[in-house]
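Q: I'm writing up a methods section and want to include an example of the input and output format. Could you take the sequence below and give the corresponding predicted structure tokens, formatted cleanly so I can copy it straight into the document?
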Amino acid sequence: MHMKNLLSGIAAMPLLMSATLAGAADAPAARTVLVIHGGAGVERANLTAEDEKEARAALEAALRAGHAELAAGKPALDAVSAAIVVLEDSPQFNAGRGAVFTHDGKNELDAAIMDGATRRAGAIAGVQRIKNPIALARAVMEKSPHVMLTGAGAETFAQSIGMALVDPSYFRIEKRWQQLQKALKEEQDKKAHTDIETAKHFGTVGAVALDAKGHLAAGTSTGGMTNKRWGRVGDSPIIGAGTYANASCAVSGTGWGEFYIRAVAAHDICARVEYKGQSVREAAEAVIDKEIPAAGGDGGAIALDRNGHFALPFNTEGMYRGWIGADGVPHVAIYKEEKLAEPAGG
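A: Here is the clean output for your methods example:
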């Protein structure tokens, strides 16, 4: 009798294994999510109706571009890159074409990207002739043995891999030029502190994504601060400060970079999720709404976990922001009083 049961069990094993494998194959994929920002520090008084309309349209276009990558089964890195390129190409944001001017009347661009599944990362800083800095940051990650390249060296690397350089005049936006002139006049008239850290217009663009395989990625791109000097580099291209991703969490920050660097803000958010067991919302709010302001800084961030939950905290009047889920419907907002609809089941 025992032998008969044993033989029956052995005979049934292939069927059980087949059913188990079929169940694994049929297991639902991770829900895809893309979250973006176009910079904190938005002030309603500085936006015309046309500026606001164009900014919202660009945010929606960025979300759709990133979603198209996710819907095609592409990795989170592709979604992050696609979304940020759209934002870099828009003059409404302080990144790429809309970058602010330095004290010397130049545009110096920084960017970083990180793959949460492998923790590979690439970053560039202080470049002046790269149309889409996020593309060069990704190339540093994928085609060089390094993590960060700066200035002329980064541009030489770009040429070595066939990336075309643009004339610096591509980045000259009159609105940004006038912002520099105003900052210079205030400085001269001593109506503002002369420390470069007090410069405004610290907008940044960024994206975090979760793909169908459950992998996360983060990216950030910026023109830095208006009237910055001496080759100043903020938090955006610094892995762990303004940009970070691992298997549990992805973060892109926007704000007063010196404080994000000191707080290692992006990594701190993910560490709270991974090691303290905090929700992504609890972690992001603790760092952005408590740690950064307590130290004297301000700004915002977007954070996303491997279950598709996200947070968009900021402590300024506004932050360009948005998200898109598997249904392909973009959700965008600018001002603090605007509430973004949460994803179903989120």
